[in-house]
Write a structure and sequence with these properties.
Layout: H1 9-15, H2 27-39, H3 52-67, E1 71-72, E2 79-98, E3 101-105, E4 111-112, E5 121-130, E6 136-137, E7 142-143, E8 154-158, H4 167-174, H5 176-185, E9 190-194, H6 197-200, H7 205-211, E10 216-219, H8 222-226, E11 232-236, H9 238-247, H10 252-259, E12 267-293, E13 304-310, E14 315-320, E15 323-326, H11 329-349, E16 354-360, H12 368-375, E17 384-389, E18 401-405, H13 412-422, E19 426-427, H14 444-448, E20 453-458, H15 471-480, H16 494-513, E21 519-520, H17 524-529, E22 535-536
Parallel strand pairs: 5-8, 8-9, 9-11, 13-16, 13-17, 17-20, 18-19, 21-22
Antiparallel strand pairs: 1-12, 2-3, 2-10, 2-12, 4-11, 5-12, 6-7, 12-16, 14-15, 18-20
Helix pairs in contact: 2-11, 2-16, 11-16, 13-16
The structure holds zinc ion.
């Protein structure tokens, strides 16, 4: 919205109530719109983690909590400052030696690497060992490291995880941080990832190549909580990967094709990688904003339902059509707006368990604020009975479908399904399970901690025409997701946004007032993350 950027903040706010037409709005739709328009305004410059725009957004959310009668639940009033380190790659000297031939690697072209999280100067020369998918999961009978000596070496692994793994577990084992942990546990010094054509479809090399070398952020002492850690994570271009494997007598296309059905056999490669880099570290701080609604039931108020909506977006970047501000209206100003209004409604009505509302920082940098909260929760972690993400405001059409990730794994599914029915919607299966979305938003660190999670969004199907994707949905995914045009001027249906807010409110009320959420018996996620928690019988559908 470049035309508005000359206005003062106060003028912009004063204009908001005038901008919707009177007949098609209700107070809830107006409120969700007002928060979204403010948080996605150009003046906040895309709410990048650690930026002034983010801090203004955080003050706004704290003020809205206060106005809604939601108590402060942070470590410093409404805030939980997260100590962060921004790391910037200053220079990198990279090469691959295959047999006796040394090939220079160019960052952002044949290889992609970011700054070191730990060292400002570093020089590594590491022999390579292929480890298939690089997964150690005894509960699934997988151990790609078996029989291989990877200590002090770089392991070469295929991005993602085999399709045979149940949806959310596939997501978990696809997560690069999980691959790093498994590699480090086996003693490896670095990981080198390669991308199959199947993976390329939703994680294109062209994006990895562009984004990986940019400055990144992690929370300080993250290394302590996730120890041991690998020193470097390197992505190899498909062309360079093919060359490396060919020189070792391996047909990579064939290996990818077979890897889906049969774990590829690991082996040492006749190659070494050299990584010499200098990195700049800058310590910064950015807060989670934490609101608390105390429960009304004396026996249940010490249990907490956790709601997470990320407040950050990606800031200012590469201009598209002359616009460099990545406003993140849908992702996730709108989700924060919905969370604020759900908090207000639940405060008015009262619920038995307490609810914590957290507007997180650093989600776009790798779920950093949520990860930090899971390591330093402001209430005891074992008193958090459920974690729900509100990420994305996909209010494009009169949806009937809700894709509630996590619903199949615990009794949270019933709480969500009842709320869905109350707004005339129903659960449908995830149309893109291969994307692993359950590991791609703020609920994931809590899933890892064994807490039942839910990550719901409206489904894309257009009930009016029967089309699998409503055209406005497709237009957003194609042209606006993580682009400067994710702005509140998009054709958002604010009446539908209000309907979504009612579903979120209903789901939270059902969880806060209902029986303590439990994992289902025999559930694969529960087996991996919550082996000792009580189980509930899964109802037949
Ligand atoms: Zn998001």
């Amino acid at each position: 919205m470049p035309a508005l950027s000359r206005l003062t903040l106060a003028t912009a706010i004063a204009l908001l109530p005038l901008s919707a037409s009177a007949d098609e709005r209700d107070a809830l739709a107006d409120a969700v719109k007002a928060h979204t328009v403010f948080l996605a305004h150009d003046l906040l410059e895309g709410r990048d983690t650690g930026s002034k725009g983010f801090d203004i957004a955080a003050e706004y959310v704290a003020a809205q909590f206060l106005a809604a009668g939601i108590e402060a639940g942070g470590t410093s009033g409404y805030f939980q400052p997260v100590p962060l380190r921004r790391r910037t790659l200053l220079a990198a000297d990279l090469s691959l030696t295959i047999g006796s031939e040394t090939v220079p690697l160019t960052n952002g072209d044949t290889v992609a690497i970011d700054a070191s999280a730990y060292r400002q100067q570093e020089s590594l020369d590491l022999p390579l060992v292929f480890v298939g998918w690089g997964i150690t999961a005894p509960e699934l009978g997988l151990d790609d490291y078996r029989g291989l000596d990877v200590r002090g070496k770089a392991v070469v692994l295929i991005e993602g995880a085999p399709p045979s793994l149940p949806g959310a577990l596939r997501a978990h084992y696809s997560w690069v941080q999980q691959k790093e942990r498994m590699a480090a546990a086996a003693g490896a010094a670095a990981i080198v990832t390669i991308k199959s054509p199947a993976r390329e479809r939703f994680s294109p090399w062209d994006l990895t190549r562009q984004f990986r070398p940019r400055p990144a952020v992690h929370w300080r002492a993250a290394e302590a909580s996730h120890a041991p850690a690998v020193q470097a994570t390197i992505s190899l271009s498909p062309v360079m990967a093919t060359r490396l494997f060919k020189a070792n007598g391996i047909d990579l296309a064939r290996l990818y094709a077979d890897a889906d059905t049969k774990a590829p056999k690991g082996r040492p490669l006749d190659a070494t990688i050299r990584v010499a880099r200098s990195s700049q570290h800058e310590d910064i701080s950015s807060p989670n904003v934490v609101g608390l609604l105390p429960g009304t039931d004396p026996a249940l108020k010490d249990e907490y339902v956790l709601v997470l909506a990320h407040l950050d977006h990606v800031g200012v970047g590469q201009p598209v059509d002359g616009d460099a501000i990545y406003n993140g209206a849908i992702d996730n100003a709108g989700g924060v707006a919905v969370m604020i209004e759900a908090a207000r409604a639940l405060r008015a009505k009262g619920v038995k368990r307490s609810i914590l509302f957290v507007a997180t920082t650093g989600e776009e940098k790798g779920l950093i604020g949520a990860d930090y909260f899971s390591a330093f929760p402001t209430v005891p972690l074992d008193k958090i009975v459920a974690a729900i993400s509100v990420d994305g405001l996909m209010a494009w059409h009169d949806f009937e479908d809700i894709v509630a990730l996590g619903a199949d794994h615990s009794t949270l599914g019933a709480a969500s399904a009842a709320a869905a029915a109350s707004i005339g919607a129903r659960h449908v299966p995830d149309p893109i399970p291969e994307r692993g979305n359950l590991a791609l938003s703020d609920q994931y660190p809590f899933l890892r901690a064994g807490i039942p999670v839910l990550f719901p969004n409206p489904g894309p199907r257009d009930p009016a025409t029967g089309a699998a994707e409503h055209p406005t949905w497709t237009a957003y995914e194609t042209h606006s997701y993580h682009k400067p045009s994710d702005e509140s001027s998009l054709p958002i249906r604010w009446d539908v946004a209000a309907r979504w807010a009612r579903y979120i409110e209903g789901t939270l009320a059902n969880i806060a007032d209902g029986p303590r959420p439990e994992w289902y018996e025999g559930d694969a996620l529960a087996k991996g993350f919550a082996p000792d928690r009580p189980r509930a019988k899964k109802p037949r559908d």
